[in-house]
Known about the structure:
The structure holds 2 protein chains of 2 kinds. By secondary structure, chain A is an all-beta fold. Helix content of chain A is 0%, strand content 53%. In chain A, strands 2, 4, 5, 9, 10 and 11 form a 6-stranded mixed sheet that branches. In chain A, a hairpin with a 4-residue loop joins strand 7 and strand 8 (70-75). Chain B is an all-beta fold. Chain B is 0% helix and 50% strand. Chain B has strands at 5-7, 10-13, 19-24, 31-37, 43-50, 53-57, 65-68, 75-79, 88-95, 105-106, 110-114.
Amino acid sequence: RKEVEQDPGPFNVPEGATVAFNCTYSNSASQSFFWYRQDCRKEPKLLMSVYSSGNEDGRFTAQLNRASQYISLLIRDSKLSDSATYLCAVNPDNAGNMLTFGGGTRLMVKP
Amino acid sequence: EPEVTQTPSHQVTQMGQEVILRCVPISNHLYFYWYRQILGQKVEFLVSFYNNEISEKSEIFDDQFSVERPDGSNFTLKIRSTKLEDSAMYFCASEKRTATNYGYTFGSGTRLTVV
């Protein structure tokens, strides 16, 4: 089983739609979780950390489900500018600070 | 907004040559990282650096790789004898990591092409 797994997509949605991505992780000891956004041939940019209680930042909501070992990202009212690849990242054991990234989910928002 | 700066943006080198990729992390950050991303593949961890020493490294980070923070500002990745499969985007990242603020800031990357 891959350490961090994402559906590669693409998810094609119209503007204004709500879209959700999941990311599963294999190591139950994982403590820190993040969502990054990566535009084509650019660096990953931190979108949000994922806290145990879930967290929201504007149109973006992240949640953690420890029992089923996945994190989710919900985007409401999609904008054309949300088109990107969304990477989840997991700190596998919190002993160090390295992150294991998923392969990313590609989102394309269409007019 | 503070940035992580990487130079050069693109480097072409011949197989077997040494390359040095340079990074200037955000000034009050304490943790530094190198990651790489082969075209179309995942972002992969190479090495982390804290308190002037390597704190973790991956299997990719073999004897051909080394890191240095020579002057308290720059953070460099050296590849001693490049191979074709080293062609990738190399991202430097830094992190402050406090109780309320953690998560990396990545630089814009160096695209390394080994020919």
